[in-house]
Known about the structure:
The chain has helices at 51-54, 69-77, 83-100, 107-117, 127-144, 151-158; strands at residues 2-4, 12-14, 17-18, 21-25, 44-48. The protein is of the alpha+beta class and 167 residues long.
Amino acid sequence: xxxxxxxxxxxxILTKIHSNHIIAGGGATSGPGxxxxxxxxxxxxxxxxxxxxxxxxxTPVSSIRYLGPAYQEACAxxxxxxxxxxxxxxxxxxxxxxxxxxxxxxxxxxxxxxxxLQGRPWNDCKGDEKKALRKTFDAIKARSFDRDRSALxxxxxEIGVIERRPG
Length: 167
């Protein structure tokens, strides 16, 4: 909250929360001819909102520009439930987890994620950058996606209903 008093005007209260800081302040009041009324005052207080105060507060994955509900669902299946968590683990690890939980590999889907986490539109990816992302995508796909095993097989394997396959 920001408390301010402009010269010759009644007290105004402005509220602004930026990131995880709350800012409060104020100023002196002056009357006609610049004469001060009472004692001038000024204070400012900035404090960090503790982690315990914001626990449980998260932003949906679909709030990231260029990522929609389908990406949010794929992330949820991969155990990624917030935009903050997605930013923290990064595009490569997130995409690998999505492949491991049944998402089909698709190069455009991968570079949409990379670009969105950079705040850039998907069609901004061109030339050498796109070639480098293709190499990274191929490496992630090779180590994270088993095309011979369906999502159902994977689940049945995990709970011990079917015999473990070698490899």
